[in-house]
Design goal:
Chain lengths: 113, 113
């Protein structure tokens, strides 16, 4: 069975600092990997996704993520965090083709001004 | 333009009083999902449809039912809500070339008193 681990429950960074959110997955084949962001009281917004090809993927809002097969990781990065990035971030793995997603437990990001 | 619309956005109901949540999508896609998300937790899949083919997760309580009268609409019925059903309920459909990416609506926040 597929699974996703986000080891950091809470992360606090200063505005302007760089950010890396960790995600490790377990899946037998090449996974479909996603990062979603959720602001309080809102739905999930897709930041980026990886299916194949270039292992460094660019997303919206200046985020990027790198797929590392050898480490079973798909970490999310941003070079300079803005106060509006404060939210909860979920990593997810799917089988594609409209199949189910397995979510990590989420990382709550706080940005200090 | 909104692709997944959920109504109402906020719903308060009494313990044991049936409630129906609505979801519609403008994409005319085959797959729709219902998730339950409790505070500070990851979304948990309740069920999904592929066309009219209904797929219930093994641990979804019998108290939760769903209807999909046509491709555009999907309903979540909670027959006798308990206090533990207070949560955000998220609806999603799929987008992308292979319908591999889940696109979420804004959610309905349900409070059971």
């Amino acid at each position: 069975a597929q699974s996703v681990t986000q080891p950091d429950i809470h992360i606090t960074v200063s505005e302007g600092a760089s950010l890396e959110l960790r995600c490790n997955y377990s899946y037998g084949a090449t996974p479909y990997l996603f990062w979603y962001v959720q602001s309080p009281g809102q739905g999930l917004q897709l930041l980026l996704k990886y299916f194949s090809g270039d292992t460094l993927v660019q997303g919206i809002k200046g985020f990027e993520a790198e797929f590392k097969r050898s480490q079973s990781s798909f970490n999310l990065r941003k070079p300079s965090v803005h106060w509006s990035d404060a939210a909860e971030y979920f990593c997810a793995v799917g089988q594609g083709g409209g199949n189910k997603l397995t979510f990590g437990t989420g990382t709550q990001l706080k940005v200090e001004l | 333009d909104a692709m997944v619309i959920q109504n109402p956005r906020y719903q308060v109901t009494q313990f044991g009083k049936p409630v129906t949540l609505s979801c519609s999508q403008t994409l005319n896609h085959n797959v729709m999902y219902w998730y339950q998300q409790k505070s500070s937790q990851a979304p948990k899949l309740l069920f999904h449809y592929y066309d009219k083919d209904f797929n219930n997760e093994a641990d979804t309580p019998d108290n939760f039912q769903s209807r999909r009268p046509n491709t555009s609409f999907c309903f979540l019925d909670i027959r006798s809500p308990g206090l533990g059903d207070t949560a955000m309920y998220l609806c999603a459909t799929t987008v992308g070339q292979y319908q591999e990416t889940q696109y979420f609506g804004p959610g309905t926040r349900l409070l059971v008193l």
